[in-house]
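Late entry, written up from scratch paper. The run itself happened at the end of the previous shift, but nothing got recorded in the book at the time, so transcribing now.
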Amino acid sequence: MVTAPAAEPGLRLACLGISHRTATSDLRERSGFPALQLRDALSAARHDPRIERLVIVATCHRTELYAETPHNAPDTAETLLEWWSANCSIPVSALAPHAYALTGVDAARHLFRVTAGLDSVVLGEAQIIGQVATSLRQSVAVHAASPLLKLAFKCAVRAGERARALVWGRLQAASLGSAAVDAAVAAAHGLRGRNVIVVGAGEIAELALRSLSAHAPRKVTIANRTMETAQEMGLRHGADACALDQLPYAMRDADVVIAATRATRAFIDQATVAAALEHRAGRPLTLIDVSLPRNVDVAVRQVVGANLVGIDDLGAYITAGHAERRAMVPAVERLVDSELAMLRMRLARRNSVAPRPGADMTATAAA
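Output as recorded:
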């Protein structure tokens, strides 16, 4: 586990995390906090006297725990690591080598850089801003967010919004959804005249649908658990809709399947793909899985005629469009530094007016 220097006084913030830079998708999946479990995990932390105050940022590409460091606390990183290990039933020995630990200004700067899109797989992608904001709301809902965590996260969201408005928003749109489409174009040798299924109706699925329009597929179908949601999205993008339980039959006519749901298990398995290929007269099937937890079982790669591109395989398609975005990094770094300076100023002002320990509060209370 990589650790940072001790936190400076006044900014008692600690971060422990793993990301696409340090861990495989398999480890990220095993050590993640699915949406249905996240509230319970935060509640457990709130009632753990070693932690009490915690925000968890959980996305496809990272899981990061942000805690307020108690006064005179032992090693917060070790405490968070043990808690994380216990909650996800993953050995410390498996998690620790891939984890990074940051404190104080370093932890705050990392949070700001993450929210500003500087640490994303897709440089400058906008979805992370909403994900960080949602992470704070989830912690607030169970009373696990301290005033310091609330302030740090709100300032981080402001940094992300400014980066989006002043820098990234001026460039051609890029996202995990567009990277999935680029991967599909390469793997299927073009999408013109092809049949494409997009599984899911969330943000990444919609971003993929926007990108698909430039490649002139013959037919696009949205498969989703809630049929009404798929139909509404289909109206916006000129796509058909089908229920998720009809997906095995729809796959018989598809050339490409892009899976982007929040499901907590792989529901497209080896048998499903093999059955679909039996009806295709030797025509191959390309599957792009951008979900974590994964929607497509990796055993699908053993099926003759199936080509699976997983979330860790998208790097080449993402990097290809990054040249213009990399040139903008220094400008976003300066913006992050300015927002971080504002956070430190606000903390300094707050600490300067805070009552001294042991001071008589009677007059203050009366006022």
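Residues 82 and 92 are 7 Å apart (CA to CA).
(Scratch paper discarded after transcription.)
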